[in-house]
């Protein structure tokens, strides 16, 4: 592996000479008093969400484009992006008087497409995901002799992102003991790790990835970049199947550790940021804050200081409902249960008396049969996991069988909205899909289905994301098992088989 000095020799001169202040703001470092008090750690966040495009991505794009030759500027630039990088490239191009083309996948929300077009860039919609859009952008770049501006795996882009750390260390009265940085493709993490190792080698630098798209951790574990088979798109700003080659080299050398956080922990961090700053961050933007919470829940931080980058705030308003729902679970302030009670008068009263004075946040029930009833219930927690276990023990002790659904995605995304009684359906296969949020996605799916396969259950909710969550039941004869599997694989949609999910067995 390359030594830290090797990275210093290659990057630090350019980083310290990088001047972006004619377009890029020096964002403030802000205290998080409420979260600091809860965690026992002095926590500060650098507000990159306050950049003109509401994301740090402007730094790398502008740094890259400032280095172009006069001829390259005349020909123009191109990039592939579903959001923040696209807006950074578009604004930098407008500022420099350069023509820009942005290839965006069809799942990109209109709000982001419109934002890029308003900045003067030409938008081309192509494919259903970033990888397909990127392939098309590279084809056009070669065909039209445009400069491709990579979102992360480029030395100049890394240099631009590194300026965040230069500012942060200058703004802090004393260097933080810990620096948490979000990781998608790794551009920010790589740049900030170089600066931190050079200016403040005593600061521990920890990368934070979304659990559903942890391509950097996978690369470090494998000894080199690997392509993930599937990724989740909840934190779409860091949903990268394969980390960069250069960013991997730097991060594997210089990061002290890479940790992952799940969607509930991300949602809880969105809430934490709002409560301390009144800023509404996007899921990818709070990865570092979620990482701080997870790390210091497992390690003592007494007397320590920690800094994080709030990297973006390009969140669709429609997503906030979903984020709020999941934040309660992420904060361990709500538990979701499936409870079986006798189907007789007074059972509901018995259940409520067992739960006691705890707040009921949700209660769903539909008559099923004369013997027993299944209820879906949310209970407010003040004592976290310990109180959740206490409630389960109390219910079981009163002869009320209970299962914990708090971390069951099928239950949280679908079942809670569907409680209505079970139906006797033969040969039913239950699957949870991620459909791209574009016209025709469902139609394409249905056209590929074999005649004779019947849809017996369907539930969809729009969460304001690039992908919609669909729960589907399909009646497929046992003799069609191989053909059905081939059909599922041919759709290209991410799916999970859920026939053995306890929530399905209890309620549907």
Walk me through this protein's architecture.
The chain starts with a helix and ends with a helix. The radius of gyration is 25 Å and the shape is globular. With 508 residues, the protein is of the alpha/beta class. The chain is 42% helix and 20% strand. Helix 5 runs parallel beside helix 6 (110-118), helix 12 (263-277) crosses helix 13 (287-298) and helix 12 (263-277) packs across helix 14 (319-330). The chain has helices at 4-17, 33-39, 57-66, 70-75, 84-96, 110-118, 130-144, 155-171, 187-199, 215-222, 245-254, 263-277, 287-298, 319-330, 347-355, 384-397, 409-413, 441-448, 481-491, 502-507; strands spanning 29-31, 42-47, 77-80, 100-104, 122-125, 147-148, 178-182, 204-210, 257-261, 305-310, 334-342, 360-365, 372-380, 402-404, 428-436, 454-461, 467-475, 494-497.
Q: Can you tag this structure with a few keywords?
A:
508 residues, alpha/beta, Rossmann fold, Biosynthetic Threonine Deaminase, domain 3, 4 domains, 6-stranded mixed beta sheet, 4-stranded parallel beta sheet, 20 helices, globular
The strand line-up of the biggest sheet is 1-2-10-7-8-9
The number of distinct β-strands equals 18
Q: State the helical fraction.
A: 40-55%
User: Major sheet, described briefly?
Assistant: 6 strands, mixed
Uncertain regions: pLDDT < 50 for 5+ in a row? none
Query: What is the end-to-end distance?
Result: 54 Å
